[in-house]
């Protein structure tokens, strides 16, 4: 079946440090891949996405590249800020073209804490 | 901007009560979803609906039911609440092949 594995947190970094949050997946076919972010007390927001191999999604200084050969979609940011403190979820969407095509499979989430 | 509104941010109920969680979206999306979020488990899909009056079980439907009488509204029902249903509940909606949009969540405590 489909699954998403994320590195366990929490990840604690100083402001301006480099961030990597690992995400690997198992899926048949060619899924679409997503990173969602959840700020304290809020629901999930889409951060970035990639729909095919070698695509790079980017937003707010975050980037992730869809690597089919390693089945990975690692999240990176060159210089984190305190305001980036949140929980980050990696997710995949199966490629079936049916009415249920929008179902997502989520990882367990990685909490990021950025300190001054 | 898409708006997904969950009726309550916090809710406290007693064991055995019938509990209704409401979700409304304003973008005419076909698909709507209910998840629960628990520490270390991520988001798990309870039920989803791809059209009015249409529903399918997700990964953990036991103890829950849903209702979708109108396209914009998707209700989650706990038939007889139990303490192991204490959790954060998240509603989402989407058009086919588009990213899901989430509400702010309802933190439900069952005493």
Which properties best describe this structure?
A: 116 residues, mainly beta, 12 strands, 49% strand, B: 111 residues, 7-stranded mixed beta sheet, 58% strand
The proportion of residues in beta strands of chain A is: over 45%
Order of helices and strands of chain A: EEEEEEEEEEEE
Give the biggest sheet of chain B: 7 strands, mixed
Oligomeric grouping of the chains:
heterodimer
Task: Give the radius of gyration of chain B.
Answer: 13 Å
Helix run count of chain B: 0
Rg calc of chain A: 14 Å
- Considering DSSP H and I runs of 4 or more, what fraction of the residues of chain B is helical? under 10%
Counted by DSSP, the helix tally of chain A is 0
What's the helical proportion of residues of chain A?
Answer: under 10%
Write the layout of secondary structure elements.
The complex is a heterodimer of chains A (116) and B (111).
Chain A: E1 3-6, E2 11-14, E3 19-21, E4 23-26, E5 32-38, E6 44-50, E7 56-59, E8 62-65, E9 75-77, E10 86-93, E11 104-106, E12 110-115
Chain B: E1 4-6, E2 10-13, E3 19-25, E4 31-38, E5 42-51, E6 54-57, E7 64-70, E8 73-78, E9 87-94, E10 101-102, E11 106-110
Parallel strand pairs in B: 2-11
Antiparallel strand pairs in B: 1-3, 3-8, 4-5, 4-9, 5-6, 7-8, 9-10, 9-11
Descriptive report:
The complex is a heterodimer of chains A (116) and B (111). In chain A, strand 7 and strand 8 (62-65) form a beta hairpin. Chain A has strands at 3-6, 11-14, 19-21, 23-26, 32-38, 44-50, 56-59, 62-65, 75-77, 86-93, 104-106, 110-115. Chain A is mostly beta strands. The model of chain A has no long low-confidence stretch (mean pLDDT 91). Chain B is mostly beta strands and 111 residues long. Helix content of chain B is 0%, strand content 58%. Chain B has no helices and 11 strands. In chain B, strands 2, 4, 5, 6, 9, 10 and 11 form a 7-stranded mixed sheet that branches. In chain B, strands 1-3-8-7 form a 4-stranded antiparallel sheet, with no helix packed on it.
């Amino acid at each position: 079946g489909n699954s998403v594995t994320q590195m366990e947190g929490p990840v604690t970094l100083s402001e301006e440090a480099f961030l990597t949050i690992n995400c690997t997946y198992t899926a048949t076919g060619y899924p679409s891949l997503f990173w969602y972010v959840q700020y304290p007390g809020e629901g999930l927001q889409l951060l970035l996405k990639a729909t095919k191999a070698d695509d790079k999604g980017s937003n707010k200084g975050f980037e992730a590249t869809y690597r089919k050969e390693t089945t990975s979609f690692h999240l990176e940011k060159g210089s984190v800020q305190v305001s980036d403190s949140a929980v980050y979820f990696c997710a995949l969407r199966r490629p079936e073209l049916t009415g249920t095509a929008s179902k997502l499979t989520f990882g367990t989430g990685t909490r990021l804490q950025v300190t001054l | 901007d898409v708006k997904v509104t969950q009726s309550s941010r916090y809710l406290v109920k007693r064991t055995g009560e019938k509990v209704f969680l409401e979700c409304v979206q304003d973008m005419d999306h076909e698909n709507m979803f209910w998840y629960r979020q628990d520490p270390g488990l991520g988001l798990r899909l309870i039920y989803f609906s791809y059209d009015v009056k249409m529903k399918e079980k997700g990964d953990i439907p036991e103890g829950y039911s849903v209702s979708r009488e109108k396209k914009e509204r998707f209700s989650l029902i706990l038939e007889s609440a139990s303490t192991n249903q204490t959790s954060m509940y998240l509603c989402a909606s989407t058009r086919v092949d588009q990213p899901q949009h989430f509400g702010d969540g309802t933190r439900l405590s069952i005493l």
